[in-house]
Amino acid sequence: MGRVMAPFGVKGWMKIQSFAAEPGTLPTHSSWWLHLRDGWREFSVEEGRVHGAGVVAKLEGFETPEAVAALGRVDVAVPRDRLPPARDGEYYWFDLVGLQVENLAGESLGTVAAVMNNGAQSVLEVEGDRVRLIPFVDPILRRVDLGAGVIMVDWGSDY
């Protein structure tokens, strides 16, 4: 859902880069999981709000900027069962990772290794005979079938 980027202020708040389409959804959760060096650990959210393009938050157990800085840049997650269902035509990025990507000619282009945003659009990183970056937008995106595990794209194998 996001990544801790830096301390914010002097009372243990942290600046979060939100990966959500709507950053305001992250502070609505009562707890977050942080990916620490020794694994994932849950923390209660005392307060949080949108701040610019990201989020600032105060988590239980962090009282100083030094405590936040000691985290480094760690990932922030929320359990899947706490997320609302995706709307028609929308997908959680983590649901796309691992899907097979095929073009209109029926050729396999590989498997989705990651999804990223380049500022203008979402992009699939597809690993196959080589790595391809395929824009996840109309008219390139033709169909996503989560049940079958396939994404159909209008993208040549020689692109």
Q: What would you call the structural class? A: mainly beta
Give helix and strand order, one letter per element, not per position: EEEEEHEHEEEEEE
Main sheet strand line-up: 1-2-5-4-3-6
Number of helices: 2
Architecture per CATH nomenclature, i.e. the level-2 architecture of the largest domain: Beta Barrel
Distance between the termini: 31 Å
Largest sheet: 6 strands, antiparallel, barrel
CATH class of the largest domain: Mainly Beta
Q: What is the radius of gyration computed over CA atoms, rounded to a whole number of angstroms? A: 18 Å
Count the domains.
2
Tell me the CATH topology of the largest domain. Elongation Factor Tu (Ef-tu), domain 3
In CATH, what is the homologous superfamily of the largest domain? RimM
Fraction of residues in H or I helices: under 10%
Shape assignment: elongated
- Look at the structure and give the mean pLDDT: 93
**Parts with pLDDT < 50 across at least 5 consecutive residues:** none
